[in-house]
Amino acid sequence: MQHKAVLIGSDMNTYYMARCYHEAFNENIDVIATEPIRFTQFSSIVNITYHPDLKTKEGFVKAMLEYGKEKFAGEKIVAIPCHDVYVRLLAENLEELSEYFIYNGPSLKIVDAFLVKETFYRAFGRAGLKFAKTIYYDCEEKETAPIPVEMYYPLIIKPSNGIEYGKHKFEGQPKVYKAKTPEKAVEFINKVKASGYRDTLIVQEFIPGDDSYLFDCMVYVNSNGKAEFASFAQIGLQEHSPSAIGNCTVLINGFNKFGGTEETVERLKKFLEKIGYRGFAEFDLKYDRRDKTFKVMEINPRQARSSYYLAALGHNLITTIFDDVFEHKEKEFELLTDEVLLSMVPFSVLKKYVRDNEYVAKAIELKKKHKMVDPLKYKGEKSFKHKFYLVLRAINYKKKYRINKNTI
């Protein structure tokens, strides 16, 4: 029996989840979204419906109930949120939607702990996770005092509440800001406060190292609270434009020039199981060469924009969920060690901007072995407009990396 699922969102995450469904069943998947985004707007593998007020509680519940009543056929539909806003809305309103939908995901308490960074660092600092040195800045403060001298520059400044931060736009607004001097830190904080953001800012010491010191760890925890598998991928390149810094564009699973993969994954796995986590979780980490440890930057309570590489490793994200919530299959934990290269940028960009020569050599090797994947390039996609968008996107990437030299 083929089970049903609905995706919530319209970004890159949504596209590759739709790809997973299409690869498994050769059918389109239904999508509920707020607005058209080019990743899915012209795709031939989705049936998409837009609800402009989907990001509000009332609009979300209304849209989901309408869909559930129309599509329910005796078996619940798996709801799969593809953005933090929808993760939280689904967790908050799951009881009201439970007549039609099933969702293997984190509780509202855990979602809020992950999404509100101050809560995250305070709550889990003693739970086996390692963080960079961190302080908290209250944007309710009228005067912006210099950051304490015991913090070593450069500093990373980011919003504690990313959802709220996104509601208060200002010119040049970065996802994460790297302050090289105390004056630059004060200047940025004043910009944030002037925008109307009144929550907390997270201020952390910068962990030295280029993009190749960053790592991605994906874990799936089944509905019984047991981790089924985990990946551990070394990132080679991330987005460099201010609004997208922190988003991975190149990674290699099964490649780690620093070692310590098994011990690190085991620690992260135990952490998720101990707190009662469910569903996909993505750890953003950075290797700190000063003490030879992997520091957790954040945890996303969902599959991430780069997570399609799991499918390339033989773990289709849609069938993983179906096997769990519908078939109740029990699986022994597996650390995915096979090598695969995921690249969202043209290979010329990878070779030019990845700074680690050993990493580039490995990427070239995997490309020659056809162990390379781009989540947006799918042979089952029939839309000319989507394919043309990818051509324009590749051209734009070359321009973006040439113009934006900054990275964290």
Secondary-structure map with pairings?
Elements: E1 5-8, H1 12-25, E2 29-33, H2 38-41, E3 46-50, H3 57-71, E4 77-81, H4 84-97, E5 101-102, H5 108-115, H6 117-124, E6 134-138, E7 155-159, H7 162-165, E8 177-179, H8 182-194, E9 200-205, E10 214-221, E11 227-231, E12 233-238, E13 248-253, H9 261-274, E14 279-288, E15 293-300, H10 309-312, H11 317-325, E16 334-336, E17 340-343, H12 347-353, H13 357-368, E18 372-373, H14 384-403
Parallel strand pairs: 1-2, 1-4, 2-3, 4-5, 11-16, 17-18
Antiparallel strand pairs: 6-9, 7-8, 7-9, 10-11, 10-12, 10-14, 12-13, 13-17, 14-15
Helix pairs in contact: 3-4, 4-5, 5-6
Describe the structure.
The protein is of the alpha/beta class and 408 residues long. It has 3 domains: 5-103, NAD(P)-binding Rossmann-like Domain (Rossmann fold, 3-Layer(aba) Sandwich), CATH 3.40.50.720; 133-205, ATP-grasp fold, A domain (Dna Ligase, domain 1); 211-403, D-amino Acid Aminotransferase, Chain A, domain 1. The protein is built from 14 helices and 18 strands. The strands form 3 sheets. Strands 10, 11, 12, 13, 14, 15, 16, 17 and 18 form a 9-stranded mixed β-sheet that branches. It has a 5-stranded parallel β-sheet with strand order 3-2-1-4-5. Strand 1 (5-8), helix 1 and strand 2 (29-33) form a beta-alpha-beta unit. It is globular. The N and C termini lie far apart (47 Å). The mean pLDDT is 93.
